[in-house]
Amino acid sequence: MKIEDNEIKEIKKSVEDHKNLFLKLGEVNYQLDKLRTQKKLIIESIDKLLQDRNKTMDNLTKKYGKGTLNIDTGELTVT
Predict the structure, then answer these.
(1) By three-state DSSP, how is residue 38 classified?
(2) What is the pTM for the complete model shown?
(3) What does DSSP say about strands 76-78 and 67-69: parallel, antiparallel, or unpaired?
(4) φ, ψ for residue 77 (rounded to 5)?
(5) pLDDT means over runs of 10, the chain (79 residues)
(6) How far is 42 from 36, CA to CA, in rounded Å?
């Protein structure tokens, strides 16, 4: 017994679609890994930036005393 050509085509298409979906899934996973790496690097950069800013603010506090800094004008209001 032989199945009809259109039934074979339908099965072949399903197999091909299945392969394509797995390829797409692999691509998405690869992109997710890259995004996770980028996210980690950005978070590390933010942490470093905040550490540097805090160090600068500590140095300013030692030099000028505690106060409020207006970063637009550079004025420090000592409290």
Answers:
(1) helix
(2) 0.69
(3) antiparallel
(4) -100, 110
(5) 94 98 98 98 98 96 93 90
(6) 10
